[in-house]
Amino acid sequence: LSMVGAPFTLGFVAKKLFLEAAYHLNSPLFYLEEALFALAIFASAFTVCYSMQFAGLTFLGKPRDGEIHRRAHEGPPGMLFAPTLLILLCVAGGLYVPLIEEPLGLLVQSEVIESEVPYSIAFFKHIDLLFWFSLALFFVGGPLLFLLTPTLTKWRDRLTRGGSLTATWDWLLQDGIQGLASNVSEFFQSPSRVKNTGVVLGLLALGIGYAFLERPWSLSWAWSGSPMEWLAAAMMLMVFVLTLLVVVAKGALQRVLALGFIGLIVGGWFVLYKAADLAITQVLVELV
Fold first, then answer.
1. Taking the model in full, what pTM does it have?
2. What does the pLDDT look like over 200-244, one tens digit per residue?
3. Spatial separation of the C-alpha atoms in residues 60 and 217, rounded to whole Å
4. How far is CA 150 from the centre of its chain?
5. Is the Cβ–Cβ distance between 20 and 122 less than 8 Å?
6. Phi then psi dihedrals of residue 51, to 5 deg
């Protein structure tokens, strides 16, 4: 249900944030902002449709026991901990953001800022247009495209009747995307310390280069920020140590565990700086 974008789940909140980001795009090109926002709504409707179809066929589709050559065994109860926690966080995040974070944000903003609060944190005073867009995508857009699936299937069959589009798609999916994913996996799973060091230094150079492009010929950005709390500094030191562990570790399992701890520390940063929705998203990514 969260993947479909049902209300009161984290997927619904994520879809609303996606539409909000598309709504606030700034572009100097003529009408590009409106076109991208319309494209985001259209694409979101297709994702709702696909997710509904996937969920429907998974839980309500006809069983195909004849295609199963081996009966899957039931996993131990401990294996259910991660998906159970994932489900609870999806629901908790979907309830926390609209019912707790936004009303509290409105209350705090009204006490600190005397001007009109932004629409994105308005609760009763203004109409949140993107909320209703997200709701319409779930209740109207998704089911409508789900009903049109047979028609869309006929159009796809007509377009691929010659075989050229199908062959192109198979080549792109198998040789292109799958090949790229395999090469990237082999590159990052290599036990070579020289290669791992090069990856870390390359990413560090990209980050510093981007900072210089933002403010060329100036180093004031390096010490003009707010004072860092001791806990945040300790967490940054832990990330530095874990990054070195990723570089020097010989086994792939040690590197994966170190990367997982880095992700959890990043989630802790979000909690420390009062961004609980981003922290929940980070934990979900780590669980997956």
1. 0.47
2. 788 888 877 776 776 655 444 444 555 667 788 888 889 888 888
3. 61
4. 30
5. no
6. -65, -40
Gap between the terminal Cα atoms of the chain: 16
Arithmetic mean of pLDDT, 136-140 = 81
Q: Please count the CA atoms within 13 angstroms of the CA of 224 that sit on its side-chain side.
A: 5
Give the start-to-end residue ranges of the domains of the chain: 1-60+78-159, 189-288
Residue 107: CA count within 13 A, CB half-sphere: 6
Q: How far is CA 201 from CA 113, 193, 195, 244, 247, in A?
A: 43, 12, 10, 11, 10
In this prediction, residue 125 carries a pLDDT of: 46
The span from the CA of 25 to the CA of 36, in Å, is 8
Residue matched to tokens 């572009």: 27
Q: Is 255 helix (H, G, I), strand (E, B) or coil?
A: helix
Residue that is written with structure tokens 């994932």 in the block: 86
Tokens 């309830």 correspond to what residue? Answer: 95
Tell me how far apart the alpha carbons of residues 266 and 279 are, in angstroms, rounded to a whole number. Answer: 8
Which residue has tokens 């562990």?
A: 245
The conformation of residue 68, written as its DSSP 8-state character, comes to: -
- Count Cα neighbours of 254 within 13 Å in the Cβ-side half-sphere: 12
Cβ atoms of 102 and 123 closer than 8 Å: yes
Query: Alpha carbon of 221 to those of 8, 163, 206, 210, 217: distances in Å?
Result: 40, 56, 16, 12, 11
Query: Which residues touch 69 (CB under 8 Å, ≥6 apart)?
Result: none
For residue 241, the one-letter residue type is V
